[in-house]
Amino acid sequence: MAQPISESPTDVKRLKKYLEANGIAPSHIQQVEGGTANYVFRAFSGDGIPVIYKHAEPFVASSNRSIPFPLDRMDFEATALLKVQELLAETTAVQVPRTIKYDREAKVLVMSDAGKTTLKEAYSMPGFDAESVGQLLGEWLATLHDATLETDIGERGNLTARSIYRWPYSHLAQVATPYRLDVDFCKYIDTTYGSSLASDDDCVCHGDFWPGNVLLNQGKRLTVIDWEMCRRGHPALDVAQFAAEAYLLDRFRGDKGLLDAFLRGYKDRRRELGLDVTTEAIFLRRLGVHLGVHLAFWPISVKWADKDETMAVIELGYQVMRHGDAEDFAWLCDNILGGLLKQ
Predict the structure, then answer these.
(1) pTM of structure
(2) Whose C-alpha in 124, 189, 306, 334 is 20 to 30 A from the C-alpha of 90?
(3) Distance (Å, rounded) from C-alpha 292 to C-alpha 63?
């Protein structure tokens, strides 16, 4: 049952009222911190087993209503979760949240609780086995891409997600001058590669695949969450986004080998499924370019290190873009993609 906007479940009190109107009486509700786009809660029933309630409003939740964000993102997440659950056999190690219910009118998605610790947080914990986790996630992502070559997720492959994903491409030139990058080359990258996002249609992509969207529970099971940016797209971009963030973790949080293990897992699984991505020039070019865009753009706003280290990462990102666009795969192999390209 949809609620009036004044009663939308945007805090604990309003969620409790929404649930009571639907005949649900949780014993306890907690608002989950850390997200930006939506309102997320953990609710406990009498048996003590928590479930997650995720609610979307037509704006970014953390923006004080100032940044619009179409509501159809929640429809795509609900659709993606159901289709992925159908297509991918659940393993003991990697899964997606189990959908319990979706109230399309109220934009409330109810899911199983996958835990509180993200992969990004777990990386720095003593004893964390980054190589095993990276391998598992690479294999899982390869399986997703292969299984969804013909999967329809509706609405022309999620136009909202396609548009949002172009953000670092379309804004790259704005940060070029203060960081001594070639402005014309940055514009070329957006025109040539950023524009492709609107028409990429190879498979279903998670759309925001990074360590912050992977949860680990106490049993070490991995759960891939936050599917609202799921779209039809090019598989290399999912690989590149995770690879960029894995590189940053390895460089600044302990050098535990997450990047290489992830790339090896992806490569090996795609080969098992009949595709050798190391011989696919378009895949490798798109991978290199997007990896470079991510490293050149996001460390400016997401702090990882001091000014000098940040400049070094941005320069590396720029060089990765250059060599990816030029199809200099030997350079990429020697400098950042050895886990994928070394035989």
Answers:
(1) 0.95
(2) 124
(3) 28
